[in-house]
TrEMBL record:
InterPro entries: Aldolase_TIM, Class-I_DAHP_synthase, DAHP1/KDSA, DAHP_syn_2. The keyword Transferase applies. The keyword Lyase does not apply. GO terms for molecular function: 3-deoxy-7-phosphoheptulonate synthase activity. Its EC number is 2.5.1.54. This is 3-deoxy-7-phosphoheptulonate synthase. The lineage of its organism: Bacteria, Bacillati, Bacillota, Bacilli, Bacillales. It comes from Alicyclobacillus dauci. Residues 81-314 form the DAHP synthetase I/KDSA domain. Keywords: Transferase.
Length: 340
């Protein structure tokens, strides 16, 4: 169950004590929320009668804070004026790895010119080989921050270790938890405590329930701004790098209020298929896409085979907006008002 306290309550100790006296354990999840595993009716009566308690919500789901049972309406996240989770798709784009200041600024300007909303880039890179380029670290984050100053685009970058969360959060607007770290629980907790929006990528073999349980770790730290990212799962198919599981989009939207975006770059691993899968993701109902782009993909320091050039990216943005407009005609009306 989830216990919602009055907004005027500044101390939850009394509520937690009453829960413990009744033989249960309560977990504080934010300043005005307590989670208790199970839905004991007697406990509901006890805590429901407390003056500090605004409401008690019985939850069947194993991920109560992420579930629609507790939060029926969609979560919408505002990042420097860019809306994630609304009817207009958010487009995140940038290089797999930040290479140089000139390069990331050039890419950021291309993202903005095409109509993109968020600049992505890897400063700390988890690579399959220990001999591959691992990223510029903090210097890469500084380069991204300069690109943000020049374009106004919010930035997202991956954090890989709990003790690096504070450093990365100092520079970025959205923390990214990569697929390999979906169940790195100390990292999830640290990201949740940062207060920054967090994009959680689905693990290579993660089930949807495991993914939402991982999101619960972030939410349980009192951080409501979680974005889910379907980036492809590992299957028997070898024609593509991974299998972009578009089933996950409507399933997650049925189970959870959290916004979900798709990553067709990692989902298929081949540039020629990124554009159609971006269209498909939006058609399935995703709140946006995140893709890798580069002025010369053949010379990209990492993930060259799945990276779009600027021309292809421009076409993809147009495709995504056309699909979104077909699903939400009001977007065309809003654009017409802006250009009038």
């Amino acid at each position: 169950m989830v216990i919602v306290l009055s907004s005027k309550v500044k101390e939850v100790t009394h509520v937690l004590d009453r829960i413990q006296e009744a033989g249960f354990t309560g977990y504080q999840a934010g300043p005005s929320t307590v989670v208790v595993p199970g839905n004991d009716e007697k406990l509901q009566e006890i805590v429901g009668a407390l003056p500090q308690v605004e409401r008690v919500v019985p939850i069947k789901s194993p991920y109560p804070l992420a579930s629609r049972e507790f939060h029926p309406e969609n979560t919408v996240i505002n990042v420097r004026g860019q809306i994630i989770g609304g009817s207009k798709p958010v487009i995140m784009a940038g290089p797999c790895s930040v290479e140089s200041l000139d390069n990331i600024v050039e890419i950021a300007q291309a993202v903005k010119k095409a109509g993109g909303n968020v600049l992505r880039g890897g400063a700390f890179k988890p690579r399959s080989s220990p001999y591959s380029f691992q990223g510029h670290g903090e210097e890469g984050l500084k380069m991204m921050a300069i690109a943000r100053e020049k374009t106004g685009l919010p930035i997202i970058s991956e954090v890989m270790e709990p003790d690096k969360v504070a450093l990365v959060a100092e520079y970025v607007d959205i923390l990214q938890i990569g697929a390999r770290n979906m169940q790195n629980y100390p990292l999830l907790r640290a990201a949740g405590k940062s207060g920054k929006p967090v994009m959680l990528k689905r693990g290579l073999s993660g089930t949807i329930e495991e993914w939402l349980m991982a999101a619960e770790y972030i939410l349980a730290e009192g951080n409501p701004n979680v974005i889910l990212c379907e980036r492809g799962i590992r299957t028997y198919e070898t024609a593509t790098r991974n299998t972009l599981d578009l089933n996950a989009v409507p399933v997650v939207q049925h189970l959870s209020h959290l916004p979900i975006v798709v990553d067709p770059s990692h989902g298929v691993g081949k540039a020629q298929f990124v554009r159609p899968m971006a269209r498909a993701g939006i058609a399935a109902g995703a709140a946006g896409v995140i893709v890798e782009i580069h002025p010369n993909p053949a010379k990209a320091w990492s993930d060259a085979s799945q990276t779009l050039d600027f021309d292809e990216f421009n076409l993809m943005v147009d495709d995504v907006n056309r699909v979104a407009s077909a699903l939400h005609p009001e977007l065309d009306s809003a654009r017409a008002l802006v250009h009038a």
